[in-house]
Amino acid sequence: MHGRTENRRGDRNFEQGGLVVDGGKIVKNGSCLQVPTLILRKSFPEQWRFVVAVPSISKGLARDEEKLAFKQLPQMRLKMLANMSPNNNAASPSVNRN
Length: 98
Hints:
- There is one protein chain.
- This protein is an alpha+beta fold and 98 residues long.
- It has 2 domains: 2-42, no CATH class; 61-98, no CATH class.
- Helices cover 33% and strands 13% of the residues.
- The chain contains 3 helices and 4 strands.
- Strands 1-4 form a two-stranded antiparallel sheet. Strands 2-3 form a two-stranded antiparallel ribbon.
- The N and C termini lie far apart (64 Å).
- The model has no long low-confidence stretch (mean pLDDT 77).
């Protein structure tokens, strides 16, 4: 019965549309323990249109593979980092100052 309640809420959110924010669900052993609390649902203006684009690429890096990839990147030069910083105070001990 609990799963059906969750599905009805999902159906209602889908039918009403808009931006939906819920409190997240607690999952244990693959089962949802509670129906997520609806925090916010805002309708979009009628004239808005959306395009959902899904790239046809393989899954990206995650966890240890991602950490290793970032470690292998060259250090960013201070001049480049300063240009990206909103306050241009980007000095950091881990930055190559050349």
